[in-house]
Amino acid sequence: MVALGLVLLFLLTQATNNREMYERNYNRLFILNMVVAALLISAIVWIAIRLGLRLRAGKFGSRLLVKLAAIFALVGVVPVA
Question: Which of 44, 55, 65, 77 is the most exposed place for a label (fewest CB within 10 A)?
Answer without folding.
Answer: 77
